[in-house]
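Loading example: each entry is read as two labelled lines plus one structure line.
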Amino acid sequence: MRTSRFRSASAGGAALWISWLFAAAAAAETRFTVPLPGPGEAVVLEASVFNGALRIESLPAGATQIEVTLGNEGDPLPVEEEQGLWSVPAIGLTVETLENRAVLKTRWTRPLIVRLGVPRQARLELQTVMGGDVELRDLDGAIEIKANNSDVVGRSLGGPIVVSSIEGSIDIEFAAVKVAPAASLVTWSGDVRVVLAPEVGVDLRLKAVSGEIDSDVPLAAPAAAGNPRQRSELRGRVGSGGADVRMESYKGSLTVRRP
Amino acid sequence: MTEARENVEELLESLAQLEELAALDAELGDASEESAEAGSLRERTRFAWSSVAAHDPGLEVPSDRLRRRFFAELETRRERQTPAPSRSSLGLAAATLLVGLGVGWLLPGRTVAPQSDERVVRLEQEVAQMGQLLTLSLLDHSSATERLRGVALSEQTLTSTEAASDEVVSALLETVRVDESENVRLAALDALAILLERPQVRSGLAEALPLQQSPMLQVALSDVLSDGFAASERAAFEQLLERPDLDPVVRERLQSILGGGEL
């Protein structure tokens, strides 16, 4: 198919073919696997991305490694490994492991897309320094994120999550689980949206100082609302209550959806 | 480590007994509507259960053994009651006595009857001590998720006991001052906001204000301290206002507070 297309190529077609080659080269990826030596134990991943996007999703059940994929330009970059320290010198990325804890850092100032596959139950401690969105999917471990100029998006999450953001929105959809996970989602200037896990008890506490609140769950002001901070709070309960879900934004709006 | 585990197991055992009391009290009350006392007790035990279980999911609830002990105790009390017009009314009276004494001791603001059950008193004290230990342990955890759980547990302690532990209050103040997670600091502040009448809390929060780099914490602390602030709190507001890099929103809010404006 490719051959016949090449044979019939006109001058314009040749240009398209060349541009496809460049595009393919630009989309090259660098991949490597970081094995974790202690299968069956809790995996902890710390990741700090200086500039760029961080996309994390679960690996198939039973996985005991971390899969790293870098969306860099050009050819795959050389990866070095020495005594549990993995590095990609061209972009200043390192992954250091100590038993089942892995620490990933990037110091590249140009935007870099880092995709990570991790065990589903892995505990994640993530940080963005100069911006870049964080995307999470199909994860059940506890997640803590400090985001700076980053949007945080989570889909099908089954574990507790703590996010603080300076400038950026937070959009979390929980998976169907037996026990609702707790959440604390705070941003100075961004919207916060949560889709609750279905049919589980939750206690909601929402504070929006200058934004609006839109909730599928009935909300009310707490009985003792003395100072301005207390007066900005609304609370709600799903079922008989349970996990604390706190959402707070100074400048943004808050949205709660219940499936 | 073994001692810590024994402490948690002891707490679990105490909580199981509290749960039994709450359930029994609810059964003895209006069947169609759970009493406020039983509801409150049930709420506290439910929360404590979830906190303990989440802290150590490997622990198993010793419910069967406790249930047997509890009802053996109840049976003993039944036998002490004379005369007994019928078995059912005797059981009801004994259970009401036991639950009444227990709930009377457990709930805040209750007058203690001289003949009340010392075991329930000890039980309540043990639960309170264990709850505080668990709270302090969680507040010291390396995970922000667990520290948030500790703050939530402390809120239950602070609202359910007349004399909230100074140790827990100090730990929460320290959390507001220096915890590395903004989320945990905000939660701790909310937990302390109900204790503003305590000078220790107001002064501690005022001291924490100038330390905050996060505009969210700066506004939150200022708002909490804005009602009836004293000279020391005014000094904290003014100290924060001196920062050249202060967010304009925070600056405007502080000026409004100092000027007595509406927030």
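Chain B touches chain A at residues 43, 46, 50, 143-145, 148-149, 152, 181-184, 186-187, 189-190, 193-194, 196, 214-216, 219-220, 223-227, 249, 263 (CB under 8 Å).
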